[in-house]
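Private note to self, pasted from the team thread so I don't lose it. Backbone tokens:
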């Protein structure tokens, strides 16, 4: 582990001691796609951890496995993370980046994929550094914007040995998204992003979309216009439609009246049918009762005939002669003559009287029966009359409904259906005319929107006030590094790089380019800190002096550009660096070492390499 302090920090030592690997570790944990530098000494390690601190005394530790994958963030120092890892408490396997534990542990995507909104390193690091989480940058001349990520921002605070000596500006180094990188640099200088920019679609896309819409409108217009050919004028259609509407209203009213009458007749028919059914049921009951009464009357008549025969027989009984009983041989006279105990001759007078009494009783009952039969017959006649009246009314209603209302209703409905169909045709014609008018208006409007030529967007240049102020800060840095007081730094908007005394930085040798890149990077950090502009607050410079060759006594026109470097640059560089205050942090990784007198002011850490003594550190990763 290596610890850096606020202010200046220097890691010096021989080659292959892990200085550049240290920068690669920082770059990797901040979201680089892969660990581009692999050293044998790291074979026993699994994770790389980076601890950050801000002005609010906040702590953020980032951890990533050396093989790649997402990043785990903690709100505690590395020492606590290591202690936790050493314990047997397992990490949660939940990769949901939206869930955090009370200690601030969170899984962050190393990079957002496509349209994903998952939290990534930028989502956690930017707010920690005092920057907005969502910063929009224009990515092309059409105004399309993209999100600023820590990867796009990294060239302003991480300069590896290839970038620092490169001929291309570090802002644009190795990138294909040049517009976004330029806008990132503008955002750092001004603190204003491109979130308010409105994108302009490509002319070809706009033209293709409008042409497709026009073609669709033509396809819709053709069948409608064909249907309207040869039809009546709008006035004729309106008059005809008005007349049809009036007729439909009258027929609808007539149909409604007919339906009301049909409803009334149906109700009346149900009532008459109920009366008919009631009369018929009563007639059946009366017929049944009359049949029984007539049978009873016949019975009464038969009984009267029998009694009359008995009475008449008693009249002749007294005229019979005495005769001998054929059974017992006794004389049969008026005395009682029986063959059993207590037997005797029947009393004729008594039989006659009994027959007369019984006949009188039956005649009374028969008289009552005849009266009942008469009453039932009268009731039968009344019910029969009710039945006939109901049947007549039912027949009258049926005839009215079948011969008058039914045909009239059918004729009215047929006519009404024809008129409604005609009215729908008028409505369809009107709808077609309205649709044609709407489509033609839309077609004219779209035709006006067709691009007439390539309308190129014009964008304002980078803020000249801001780049001028930055140039003055870089001049101050160069003066501290032994440049003459009349040194003049300018910003070249074409290359997004600096020119010193009118000469582009890229025109110098690699040693000179490294020094100027270092001055520009430190100058940008100082500018942002002084003007409260967005910046991580630290820079890491890999080998700013390694390629510098200082020779005395060579002419200015020497073909070796590095030979023109003032020999005072290196000591002045270390001296200026030692005077940096603790508001910012500068980390220099270089083969060259500062003077021992400045070691304490520079937080110097030496990697002695293979020849290191026991008291010295061999390299970034101890052997």
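Design output:
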């Amino acid at each position: 582990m290596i610890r850096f302090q606020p202010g200046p920090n220097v890691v010096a030592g021989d080659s292959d001691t892990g200085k550049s690997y240290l920068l690669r570790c920082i770059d990797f944990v901040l979201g680089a796609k892969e660990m581009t530098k692999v050293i044998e000494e790291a074979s026993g390690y699994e994770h790389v951890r980076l601890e950050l601190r801000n002005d609010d005394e906040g702590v953020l530790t980032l951890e990533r496995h050396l093989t790649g994958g997402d990043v785990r963030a903690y709100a505690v120092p590395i020492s606590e993370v290591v202690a936790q890892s050493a314990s047997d408490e397992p990490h949660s396997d939940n990769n949901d980046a939206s869930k955090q534990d009370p200690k601030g542990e969170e899984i962050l995507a190393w990079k957002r994929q496509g349209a994903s909104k998952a939290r990534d390193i930028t989502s956690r690091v930017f707010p920690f550094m005092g920057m907005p989480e969502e910063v929009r940058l224009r990515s092309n001349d059409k105004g399309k914007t993209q999100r600023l990520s820590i990867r796009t921002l990294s060239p302003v605070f991480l300069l590896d040995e290839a970038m620092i000596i490169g001929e291309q500006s570090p802002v644009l180094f190795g990138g294909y998204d040049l517009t976004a990188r330029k806008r990132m640099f503008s955002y750092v200088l001004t603190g204003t992003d491109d979130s308010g920019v409105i994108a302009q679609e490509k002319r070809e896309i706009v033209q293709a979309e409008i042409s497709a819409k026009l073609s669709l409108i033509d396809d819709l217009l053709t069948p409608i216009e064909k249907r309207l050919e040869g039809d009546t004028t709008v006035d004729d259609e309106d008059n005809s439609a008005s007349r049809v509407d009036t007729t439909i209203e009258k027929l609808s009213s007539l149909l409604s009246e007919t339906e009301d009458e049909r409803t009334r007749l149906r109700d009346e028919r149900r009532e008459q049918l109920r009366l008919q059914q009631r009369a018929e049921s009563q007639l059946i009951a009366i017929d049944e009762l009359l049949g029984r009464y007539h049978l009873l009357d016949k019975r009464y008549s038969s009984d009267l005939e029998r009694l009359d025969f008995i009475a008449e027989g008693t009249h002749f009984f007294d005229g019979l002669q005495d005769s001998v009983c054929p059974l017992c041989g006794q004389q049969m006279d008026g005395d009682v003559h029986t063959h059993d105990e207590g037997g005797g001759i029947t009393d004729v007078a008594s039989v006659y009287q009994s027959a007369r009494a019984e006949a009188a009783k039956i005649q009374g009952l028969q008289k009552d029966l005849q009266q009942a039969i008469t009453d039932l017959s009268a009731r039968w006649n009344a019910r029969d009359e009710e039945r006939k009246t109901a049947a007549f009314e039912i027949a009258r209603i049926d005839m009215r409904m079948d011969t008058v209302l039914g045909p009239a209703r059918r004729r009215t409905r047929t006519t009404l259906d024809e008129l409604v169909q005609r009215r729908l045709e008028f409505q369809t014609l009107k709808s077609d005319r309205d649709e044609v008018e709407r489509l033609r208006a839309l077609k004219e409007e779209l035709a006006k929107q067709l691009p007439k030529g390539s309308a190129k967007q014009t964008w304002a240049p980078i803020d000249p006030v801001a780049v001028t102020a930055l140039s003055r800060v870089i001049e101050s840095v160069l003066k501290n590094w032994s440049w003459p007081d009349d040194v003049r730094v300018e910003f070249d908007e074409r290359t997004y790089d600096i020119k010193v005394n009118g000469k582009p930085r890229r025109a110098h040798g690699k040693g000179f380019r490294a020094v100027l890149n270092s001055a520009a990077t430190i100058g940008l950090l100082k500018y942002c800190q002084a003007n409260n502009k967005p910046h991580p607050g630290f820079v890491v410079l890999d080998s700013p002096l390694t390629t510098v060759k200082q020779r005395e006594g060579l002419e200015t026109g020497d073909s070796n550009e590095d030979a023109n470097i003032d020999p005072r640059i290196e000591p002045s560089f270390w001296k200026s660096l030692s005077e940096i205050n603790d508001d910012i942090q500068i980390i220099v990784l270089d083969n060259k070492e500062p003077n021992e007198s400045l070691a304490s002011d520079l937080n110097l850490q030496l990697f002695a390499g293979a020849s290191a003594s026991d008291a010295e550190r061999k390299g970034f990763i101890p052997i």
